[in-house]
């Protein structure tokens, strides 16, 4: 198996982009990543695109072909293009498929991208499309929403460990603090614990400010074998570990409502592959689709003891400059959550940090970073570990 | 949800009929045709649950799912049946009366409908016992 | 074994019964406030103080199922013995597609049975009872499930809005003597074509003839059916411990009782309308259920339903020893009436679908 490196990256702006289409977004990200890597289209062997629900958001399937076509990689070059779907983990899985294809030796230069255009439909329709990541037949039919499912995790976490609404809110406050320094972030405003607690209730105990927004955006990275990465860039970022795991589709079937076993197992697999542990990680991008999800994630990945994620966050240990900076990009909460793109955007944040290009949100001396991307209420999780050193 | 898709599991929804693995003894609701523990060695049969259960966790939904706008605020919960399996359901009643560990029993209610012209979906919700 | 004048075995009766009433109520004051009416005058005139309101997810089918399950559970009936399900209602959720199949499936009576929905204004439930009596007596079926269930409609601002309520009652009709909780000795109906109340296809609310619903409608049919039955089986009001009359309000059954020679005491246990309102197809059966809840073995109950359009079904019922055995195995009407949750007119309008969402 060959080692793999990221040699180019590009995010579009994340936000409500009324004047830009699905294909506009993904082409900008793809072309940007190719430019960043200093390659040309002829070099590309294949592409993988994470997209949750083109069908519901823009009534478009056959996303792989569309993207190859509008990137100019189809008509003359006929480059293979594959769509990957695992709800909100689609981007992370597209990246993983790209890593597989380079590591296997089948391909050398691969684009891994993610895209979601969510604002072409009314927000009720968007929520309904997102709810399809849960079990439609046994959760959705009872009126379950995504905030509702995570609210049930939050309620249980509070009941079991004494986690408070203030502690949950502190994750959102920290992520907005980070997001203001990220040029692509959807929200660059600072918020306070009071403003989170005073925002309208969506699914008790989660307020609207506990929830990530609906976002348009695309992200792309270029992968290459580590052995030749230096031919393209002075700062290749190496993939040290990748792990993926599945769990029951429905929340009610989980072993423990407050633990995402898929996160634990995906993390363990990535740590083992990288021969590392949580203590080796300098910063992590976790899947904070809701504040409670960040609390569970830092526990499940070993950055906080089970039940102490809320306290650790409230105490500032996950802020930039803290013990383990979490979501320096602003996370899904402030940076935005175009669901198919998020997993790739997380990797780009780590690449920028490890390259030392993160500006005001730079984590000093960052050498090793992790990403954690979740599908649904925890049925899929994918974790990657990256290093600036081979 | 389409008519055949709902109708296929209608009895499971009306009468809490799930399945049971004779090999390992585990009960499943929602029904499963493959036992996750025994897999191919499992022996699955239908099983009607008593309906008695308790609330594992719950939320009060204020921003409704599409088609549930007429019901807000409504209580969504995970209920554990006395035979073991857990399911997602609504609890009928006031949000302020809800608590984790609360005993509940089943009631027959309308789950939703396909607009004014389409099918009406019935099934099981729960009430404080 | 008794036989009637046609030589048919009439030893049929109620094997079990079950009732269901939603937990919500609205007070007459709250409706009167919206329309600028005088609540005290209305309450005195109608003898109704409050009425039941269905939950947002309740309709005539869910109420029928709850009542039917209560009846099945009360006597521990094997639902597979039920050979017929008839649900009477004027608010069937579908115009075409039976409520009764939903009930049959939800009580576990499917698939070997006959089923259909009945409509005869407020007496569709007792028409279902009579049909089941016939099928059971003839030996065509073992047990029949007869239900009256409604989420009654009354147009906003119409007089009916003060009384139109929600509730349902199910009777399981059989003829195994050891199983009978109450023997129905006989039944008698009086029917004419009288347009005192109707609802046209596709219309959300019924129309009625105002005071025309009284004399030529309710009183003519109830008195003729009641007198006819007593004459047929040679009984008189004194022979009965209890009496129940269709209760669209409190005034009509009280007046018809006194017209026929029944006392206030006889109708008291079954007169649930002041706290419940008019449950349409469930109305008379609710009165019978409430009476069975407190009757002793050997007690006799006289009951007469009325349905606009118009007709009356009268029943002569004798309670058996079995009542003591099954009475406490399901919620009594009194328990269903207790501890209501009051809603204001806005919430009532939402529950009843009077506020239309886009």
TrEMBL record, chain A:
Gene3D superfamilies, from UniProt? 3.40.47.10
Give all residue intervals belonging to the Thiolase C-terminal domain.
243-388
Q: Which residues form the Thiolase N-terminal domain?
A: 4-226
Q: Which UniProt keywords apply?
A: Acyltransferase, Isoprene biosynthesis, Transferase
Q: Which CDD domains match?
A: SCP-x_thiolase
One GO MF annotation is: acetyl-CoA C-acetyltransferase activity
Q: What is this protein called?
A: Acetyl-CoA acetyltransferase
Q: Which organism is it from?
A: Methanolobus halotolerans
From TrEMBL, chain B:
**Where in this chain does the record put each ChsH2 rubredoxin-like zinc ribbon domain?**
11-41
A UniProt-annotated Pfam family: zf-ChsH2
Q: Which Gene3D superfamilies match?
A: 6.10.30.10
- At the top level, the lineage of the source is Archaea
Residue intervals of the ChsH2 C-terminal OB-fold domain: 49-109
The protein's matches in InterPro entries, at most eight in alphabetical order, are given as: ChsH2_C (IPR002878), ChsH2_Znr (IPR022002), NA-bd_OB-fold (IPR012340), Thioester_dehydratase-like (IPR052513)
What name appears for this protein in its UniProt entry? Transcriptional regulator
Q: Which organism is it from?
A: Methanolobus halotolerans
